[in-house]
Amino acid sequence: MVTAFLDELHLTGVTLVGQDWGGMIGLAAAQRRPGVVQRLVLANTWAWPVNGIPHFEAFSRIIGSTPARFLIERFNLLVNTFIPTGHRRRRPTAAEMEHYRRALETPERRGASAVLPRRVLGSRAFFAEVEAGLPALAQLPALIVWGDADIAFRPRERARLEATFPEHTTVIVEGAGTYVESDAPAEFVAALRDWAPLRTGSAQF
Question: Do 166 and 190 have their domain in common?
Fold first, then answer.
């Protein structure tokens, strides 16, 4: 879908911003459309298989279980639980939570979010494909914005991204959680502006 989006709009010179699953999916799109992405902004994400890493294994097996999938589909568990816990510096407002809930307002619309936890382990082949394609992107300038209070993505993941992209700038956002861009929006925007002011004709995704 992301590659189709890039193709449909004939985008070039893209600054691709990816967080969590968006980092993995965005990097895959960049690999499949060489030359389209000009710069990377990566926030609390990863780009390789995580099978065998205890906390990823536990999350995928527990939250990807049949009972948890039922709770996600019927009661919007991921939004109601993981959005608040993914913010460590601020509490999402009632209006923000309503926005998230309305996006996934029916069990049918929650189908993908119910499947994703299990795919953390089950998509090993796709993750390995993305990992294998990273050298083709290694020359891209990368901004790594990292919430250091995230319980999922830790210093180990950040250090590996830094090693993958030699032309990186890292901004640590102290006390921010998984959703650093909404947990610390002022710091996130400042990091982007300080790193690479937008140029005329550039595109962001």
Answer: yes
